[in-house]
Specification:
By secondary structure, this protein is of the alpha+beta class. The chain has a single domain (3-124), classed as Aminopeptidase (3-Layer(aba) Sandwich). The chain has helices at 20-27, 30-35, 44-62, 107-122, 137-146, and strands at residues 3-6, 10-14, 66-71, 77-84, 93-98, 127-132, 149-156, 159-167.
Length: 168
């Protein structure tokens, strides 16, 4: 699978079908369901369909999408991070989710920084959006630390979200 970026501690690459078991685990974490959505992915087969209709379809349509984030060297999958193009938003937005045991260690910041740099350069983007629930304090802090600026709020998937924008 194509590598999007290598950082000091991480390899960020496109998803493949062999990542289906990891997707089942990540998408069923209580924090994922609470802060993002219940994607109703419970089996390996559903995870393969999710990957094909989500990240893989996005790679084909836009040249970017959510990517697997894994620890460099050992290859342990710890989360996902990438640019997403949602019909509801005017431009691409940064998406990310990590397993709870890997939160609070700077991995999300490291992955998001690499994804933003690579994505903006490769796709000649002037800005990237981000959305997060107002009560997701960790995500709101991360976006501000990355240099995103508040732009207001937006209704997305039945919830009011903070809307941020990152500009070069």
């Amino acid at each position: 699978m194509p590598t999007v970026s290598d950082t000091e501690r991480l390899t960020i690459r496109h998803f493949a079908h062999e990542d289906a078991d990891f997707i089942v685990r990540l998408l069923n974490e209580p924090s994922f369901i609470r802060h993002i959505a219940d994607k109703q992915v419970r089996t390996r087969e559903e995870a393969v369909r999710y990957l094909d209709s989500g990240p893989v379809a996005s790679y084909c349509a836009h040249g970017f999408g959510l990517n697997l984030v894994q620890l460099k060297g050992e290859g342990t999958p710890i989360g996902m991070c990438g640019l997403v193009k949602r019909d509801e938003l005017e431009g691409p937005d940064l998406g990310y989710a990590f397993l709870p045991e890997f939160c609070g260690q700077g991995y999300a910041f490291e992955a998001a920084t690499a994804v933003l740099e690579q994505g903006m350069r490769a796709h000649a983007l002037e800005s990237v959006l981000a959305v997060t629930l107002p009560d997701n304090a960790r995500s709101n802090r991360l976006l501000r630390a990355l240099g995103f600026r508040a732009r207001g709020t937006v209704d997305l998937y039945g919830a009011r979200n903070n809307l941020y924008e990152y500009r070069r």
